[in-house]
Write a structure and sequence with these properties.
The chain is mainly alpha-helical and 145 residues long. The protein is built from six helices and two strands. The chain has a two-stranded parallel ribbon with strand order 1-2. α3 links the parallel β1 and β2.
Length: 145
């Protein structure tokens, strides 16, 4: 019997390796959230809000492309389909879906200061995007969830 040792990390730290499926996990989370909200608000509650205020409530998500992937063409198509699905489901539920990006994060007044500090940390790109997501949401001045 041969025992094979593996260098693979196990546990939460493995979730943030550069060669993992972090983006699939995020996409799955967004999809589950969209389905949950769609079932929670099949349209009536949100439609009532829209008829009273005259506008739809805004729902945000943050997305950034992982250009370092080897399968970038396949990855890009999957991500575009996932984003279209997310936008369609939220829109059908009576919301105005908006996608935030790194450009939105850069509108945050202290972006350069925070980015400089974040750069000093030894973070994987996926972890850095977590900070960018919060800065992008902070820079969104027109409300939303």
């Amino acid at each position: 019997m041969t025992v094979v040792k593996s260098d693979r990390k196990v546990g939460a730290s493995a979730m943030f390796r550069k060669d993992n499926t972090t983006y699939i996990i995020i996409a799955t989370f967004l999809l589950i959230t969209a389905i949950f909200i769609y079932r929670l608000f099949p349209g009536t509650e949100v439609s009532q809000y829209e008829s009273v205020s005259g506008k739809r409530p805004i729902i945000y998500t943050y997305f950034s492309w992982d250009a370092s992937r080897q399968d970038i063409e396949h990855y890009t198509k999957e991500q575009e389909e996932m984003i279209d699905f997310w936008k369609t489901r939220w829109s059908n539920a009576g919301w105005e879906p908006r996608i935030l990006s790194e450009e939105d994060a850069k509108r945050y007044p202290k972006f350069n200061q925070y980015d400089e500090q974040i750069s000093k940390l030894d973070l994987l790109p996926s972890k850095r995007l977590c900070f960018y997501r919060w800065m992008a949401m902070s820079a969104a001045t027109d409300g939303g969830w």
